[in-house]
Design goal:
Elements: E1 2-10, H1 13-23, E2 28-30, E3 37-41, E4 47-52, H2 53-59, E5 75-80, H3 84-93, E6 98-105, E7 110-116, E8 122-128
Parallel strand pairs: 1-4, 5-8
Antiparallel strand pairs: 1-5, 2-3, 3-4, 6-7, 7-8
Length: 129
C-alpha cells in the first residue's frame, strides 16, 4: 500500500479550485474550472486533490449525509494497492468493516472499496482498471 493523495471533498469545486491554484499558487497537475476532480503538486510524490462531495457520496452509497453538511465527509485518504479485491479480503480478515465492497468505477478508471478508521475518517483503497 502507498498513500496516493489526500482528497478534499468540496461542494463548490470552482471556488476551491481557484483558491488552491490562484490564491495559494499550487501547480495544477490535472483538472480545471468546471471539472469534478483536480490534483495539485505539493512537492511530494502524492498530491492534494479536490473532488465534488456529492459524487463521493454516490460512490459510498450515502444519501443521508447530503442533507446534513455537518456530518458530510470533508476528505478521504486515498491508498493505492496492487489489487483491491486481495487487499479488501486481507483487511476484512483483520476486522475492518467496509462500507462498500470492491466495485469498478469506470468513469474514474479505478476499482475501489471504502472503509472508516476508528475515528470515522473515510479511507479509499483503489487500483487502476
Amino acid at each position: 500500500m502507498k498513500l496516493n493523495n489526500i482528497r478534499l471533498l468540496v461542494s463548490d469545486f470552482d471556488k476551491c479550485f481557484s483558491f488552491y491554484k490562484d490564491t495559494l499558487g499550487l501547480e495544477c497537475k490535472q483538472g480545471s474550472i468546471g471539472d469534478v476532480y483536480a490534483s495539485f503538486n505539493i512537492g511530494l510524490p502524492s498530491v492534494l486533490a479536490l473532488f465534488r462531495s456529492d459524487l463521493m457520496n454516490m460512490a459510498i452509497n450515502s444519501n443521508v449525509v447530503l442533507n446534513n453538511e455537518a456530518n458530510q465527509d470533508k476528505f478521504v485518504i486515498v491508498i493505492e494497492v496492487d489489487k483491491v479485491d486481495e487487499s479488501y479480503e486481507q483487511l476484512k480478515s483483520k476486522g475492518i468493516d467496509f462500507i462498500t465492497e470492491p466495485k469498478d468505477m469506470p468513469d474514474w478508471g479505478i476499482r475501489v472499496a471504502h472503509f472508516r478508521d476508528p475515528e470515522s475518517n473515510l479511507i479509499e483503497i483503489y487500483s487502476d482498471l
